[in-house]
Amino acid sequence: MNIKGLFFTVTSALLFGFTPVLASYTYEMGATPETLTFYRDFMALPALLLILAFQRQSLRLPAKTLGAILLIGLFGRGTTSLMLYLAYPLIGIGTTTTLHFLYPVCVALICRIFFRERLGGRKLIALTLAIIGVCCFLDFSHAAAAAGLLIAGGSGLTYAFYLVGIEKFGLKDLPPFQLSFYLSLTVSMGMLLYNIPTRSIRFVLPARAMLILFLISLCIAVLAMTFLQLGIKYLGASNAAIFSLLEPISCEFFGWLLLGEHISPAKLAGCAIILTAAGIMSRAKAAPAEDSRQTAAPCPAAKQE
Q1: How far apart are CA 35 and CA 84, in angstroms?
Q2: Rounded to whole angstroms, how far apart are CA atoms 75 and 158?
Q3: 192-218 residue pLDDT tens
Q4: The pLDDT value given to residue 293
């Protein structure tokens, strides 16, 4: 069981870490962050539909559940993807992914502010380390770097909203592929609406770019998500979250190896500190709410879709 869980989780992390390299290649072929966000989810729809048909899963959901999916899909998953793709060309895929991994810290803050969950000593230590780690990346020498840092950090916040929303709205109890299908559909439709005033999606790209976009969609929306769910099944959420920390490490490595991204000693230190904070946070047990009558589920610690 542990070997299976380790294999699935590590493979998922490597897929998540490698696909930003593919995304960077498409920028040179005319793709935009909005194009990547749209096609990543849109191209996954046929595969997800086939899987649901094979599993004989119904697509019918209550109106209340569909409303929650719409909210979480647009302002959680969709916004997170768009911010990541916006930050990649500004500060590099390695730095972006590392700052994105502030999301466990953001989850703890959201649960503290809105659900009155106690942080505890371990989480306070993790929060302090995360702040120190972010400071190692600060570079306001030019506007693009400053904007990239803010956008990458913001992606951690929106992803935290996505995770908490999945937990608090009860969406985690839905069949995983059914939820993935509706989230992908929501993001796709949302990006089409976003494109009406912005005209930022490039629908016609070279064949090679379209192939890369399809590979990104297949790797993330189908393979990586499924492997992560299997990893959580065999290892548990906290242990899977620890091995998921290979994602920013592999992303830094692939960015250096394939894209020639520079890794300074300060960034290396920042990576280590932020990953340490994320690891501490993922191992911390959720504390009860301050109001003992509150019965909401504890906030999530592991990355999940």
Answers
A1: 13
A2: 7
A3: 999 999 999 999 999 999 999 999 999
A4: 43
With tokens 């790797």, the residue in question is 219
Cα dihedral across residues 36, 81, 193, 200: positive or negative: negative
Q: Residue 259 corresponds to which tokens in the numbers above?
A: 């894209």
CA distance 289 to 298: 9
Q: In b/e form, how buried is each residue of 20-41, taking b as 16+ CB within 10 angstroms?
A: bbbbbbbbebebbbbbbbbbbb
Q: With the C-alpha atoms ordered 164, 169, 173, 175, is the resulting torsion angle positive or negative?
A: negative
Tokens 């542990």, located at residue:
2
Report the C-alpha gap between 49 and 165 in whole angstroms.
24
Closest to 282 (Cα-Cα) out of 241, 244, 245, 254: 241
